[in-house]
Amino acid sequence: MNEYLSALYIRLKTVAVFRNILSDGVINALLSLLDSCINNNDKISAADNYGNFVHELYNNTDNLSEYIFGAVSDDENVFVKKKSHGEAVSEEMTDCVKAELSVFNELASLTSVVIKEAMGYDGFLPSWRTTEIDFETEYFSRCDNISKYGYGIYAKYHMFRVKDGAVAPVKNPDTISLSDLSGYHDERQTIINNTKALLSGKPAANILLSGDAGTGKSSTVKAVVNELKGEGLRIVEVRKEQLVDIPSVIEELNSNPLKFILFIDDLSFSQADDNFNALKAILEGSVTAKSNNVVIYATSNRRHIVRESFADRDGGDDIHRNDTVQELMSLSERFGLCITFVKPDKKCYLEIAKNIASSYGIDAENEKFSLDAERFALKKGGRSARVARQFVDSLRAM
Question: Are 296 and 305 in contact (CB under 8 A)?
Fold first, then answer.
């Protein structure tokens, strides 16, 4: 048995394309365990390595095969980059990838029984599950559909934010779905259609979602991403003060096989805001910002985004008053689509509240529910989709 593990260990040490995986916490712990099994002069060290490996694995899953295949699938290596860019891959590199996939396939099938036998230990040791997976077939299938799966962190996560000028994953994203949202069907369908155009490689517009607070603008964008992430859609949230980072972010995403929404939430500017001109340049499509796989979706509670004072309308210190007004209004016009989410009337508000209540099994088809929902909206200062959800949440809490 030790000869078998020794041969497997040596093959793992020769891995080249997938070499980054060897430093993965779980796989590195498994390598240490194999090493101690091969050189089993110290059973205490082997037992310690065994416990450490299972600890690392259990922190993620109890299925070794699925974990290792996930690590292989998400690995950002030279082979998958060439495939994603449509570059030719040599026969030598392809053979290397196939051989290494075979090694990891073998590693993924290791059972606790095999390790225990190699250790020569007959006491209790925790075990793990394995699953039969054809690594080569599955991996090459993913490479052939790289525009849906992606690679690296973009294969593992679907929501991101800009942090310190770089794209970082959101490890606990908002899970809201389109089925959780009520009302505004036409507005949401327009956004879905535009996003599907992006995914299919057709021209897609930048979108400004404007309107009253609490009408579900931000929730709609996140729900669309959750709905279409399996088709290769990802989202990167950008705060207003990070707008200057957008050109470099787009440059990074430009060569990625996936499609991206750059999401700017609650957008507004003062007239003197330097970020105003930065966003204008991006929307116009400067040399560094133009990309076929990235669109910008922004939400704002203001239709024209820029706060305009009466002094601005009167021209202020600007000799050409009309130029000043046009400059303030021009930013929203640079979005290809402007979709307005207006505050719901009483009928629409109650419909939203009833739909949300029904999804939780709450009886909403009675006069008391409608009266209570209206009273709740009055206390909150007006009707909105957010207020409807808060009302239902209050009923659930009771």
Answer: no
Tell the burial category of 381 from Cβ atoms under 10 Å away from its Cβ (0-12, 13-18, 19+): exposed
Strand partners, 111: none
Phi-psi region of 201 (alpha: psi -120 to 50; beta: other; left: phi over 0): left
What dihedral do alpha carbons 180, 181, 185, 190 form, nearest 10°? -90
C-alpha 325: how far from chain center: 38
The pTM assigned to this predicted structure is: 0.80
| pLDDT per position as a tens digit, 106-123 | 999 999 999 988 888 888
Q: Which helix (H) or strand (E) holds 94?
A: helix 91-108
Identify the pLDDT of residue 319.
Answer: 47
Residues 6+ apart with CB under 8 A from 304: 328, 329, 331, 332
233/221 Cα distance (integer angstroms): 12
Say whether pLDDT at 140 is over 70: yes
Q: Which CATH architecture has domain 159-341?
A: 3-Layer(aba) Sandwich (3.40)
Quote the CA–CA distance of 69 and 103 in Å, as a whole number.
Answer: 11
Please determine, for residue 100, whether its predicted confidence score (pLDDT) is greater than 80.
Answer: yes
Break the chain into its structural domains and give their ranges.
2-153, 159-341, 346-397
| CA gyration radius, the chain | 27
On whether the CB atoms of residues 34 and 5 are closer than 8 A, the answer is yes
Q: Give yes or no for residue 324 having a pLDDT over 90.
A: no
